[in-house]
Design goal:
The chain is α/β, with parallel strands linked by helices. It is 46% helix and 12% strand. The structure holds NADP nicotinamide-adenine-dinucleotide phosphate.
């Protein structure tokens, strides 16, 4: 069986300081594709996931695997310490672990919003803190954060998820300036919609508050539109494959001067241009056509 991802090994351009890459959320989707692509490009990849048994396939390809839950301080510290104990600091950190949370703001459980931020934001920030001492000592490092085009515009019914991705924009910009002098580059990768397990998982997060919910029609419409958006062959609105995002991750790891932000996918560029062009009210009207709030407009 051939390796599923054929990214060109280009070891001449890999900085020799540390070829060790740590990828979070590598059990599926973008994380799995990025781990494989970095491995193909010559990195020593530590693929991590909450349940390490989900990484067996990657282990069979020769990747190293570790358990890592980005909401668990002890788990994060152990993973970074285990990698450093193998002899090298983490050279490339790919902060990929994350998930979507849907629901109208009024109906969101605060505990769910906190869990979203623990995973998508605080876990990412903490891992940066844990790997940076090693990167500073080495005088070289690459931090690659998986944001989203949804960190530059917001769709109704996904406010909590967008808020978490907006937060990454600020963390990325601050961190980039703070660590540049230590030889560490920071890149925010911003994919458009990607075919992964993401949309199936997000579908289950819409709060079910019963038939009397004032948002019932909106939620029903929202779930229908989201499902259609990710259904291949229908109104897919430019959904891309995880390997396309992985290729950009590898570029960010290898480039002499990595990009500060990389939007991945043509539809992502289109959404961003539209958002820049439209006033808030005009954007609201566009969103209302996409996610109608009443059943009358279905
Ligand atoms: N798919 C899209 O349309 C899209 C678009 C833009 C950005 N993104 C971003 O891309 C990233 C990857 O998502 P994906 O599309 O590849 O979805 P995915 O296939 O569902 O992968 C998400 C990964 O995150 C992991 N994860 C979730 N909670 C975790 C935790 N507490 N600790 C460690 N790992 C955890 C999951 O692991 P488990 O197996 O343990 O659940 C899984 O490996 C996310 O940050 C997402 O926001 C996705």
């Amino acid at each position: 069986m051939s390796h599923p991802i054929k990214t060109m090994p280009n070891s001449a351009t890999i900085n020799t300081r540390s070829k060790v890459a740590l990828v979070t959320g590598a059990s599926s989707g973008i994380g799995r594709a990025s781990a494989l692509a970095l491995h193909s490009a010559g990195f020593i990849v530590y693929a991590t996931a909450r349940d390490a048994s989900s990484l067996q396939g990657l282990a069979n390809w020769g990747l190293r695997t570790l358990p890592l839950d980005v909401t668990d301080e002890a788990s994060m510290m152990r993973a970074v310490a285990d990698i450093e104990a193998d002899g090298h600091p983490v050279g490339v950190l790919v902060n990929n672990a994350g998930y979507g949370l849907n629901g109208p703001i009024e109906e969101l459980e605060l505990s769910e919003v906190r869990r979203e931020f623990e995973t998508n934001v605080f876990g990412l920030l903490r891992l940066c803190q844990l790997v940076l001492p090693g990167m500073r000592r080495a005088g070289w490092g690459r931090i690659i954060n998986i944001g989203s085009v949804g960190g530059s515009f917001t769709a109704p019914g996904a406010g909590a998820y967008h808020a978490s991705k907006y937060a990454l924009e600020a963390i990325n910009d601050a961190l980039r300036c703070e660590v540049q002098n230590f030889g560490v580059d920071v890149t925010l990768v911003k994919p458009t919609g990607v075919y992964t397990a993401f949309d199936k998982k997000i579908a289950g997060t819409m709060p079910d508050t019963g038939p009397d919910s004032p948002y019932l029609a909106f939620k029903t419409n929202h779930m229908r539109v989201t499902r259609a958006m990710f259904t291949p062959g229908r109104n897919t609105a430019g959904i891309i494959r995880p390997e396309q995002v992985a290729a950009v991750v590898v570029q960010a790891a290898l480039a002499r001067r990595p990009r500060t932000r990389s939007v991945v996918g043509l539809s992502g560029h289109l959404y961003l241009a539209l958002r820049r062009l439209l006033s808030d009210r005009a954007w609201d009207r566009l969103m209302a056509t996409q996610f109608p709030v009443s059943s009358a407009s279905e």
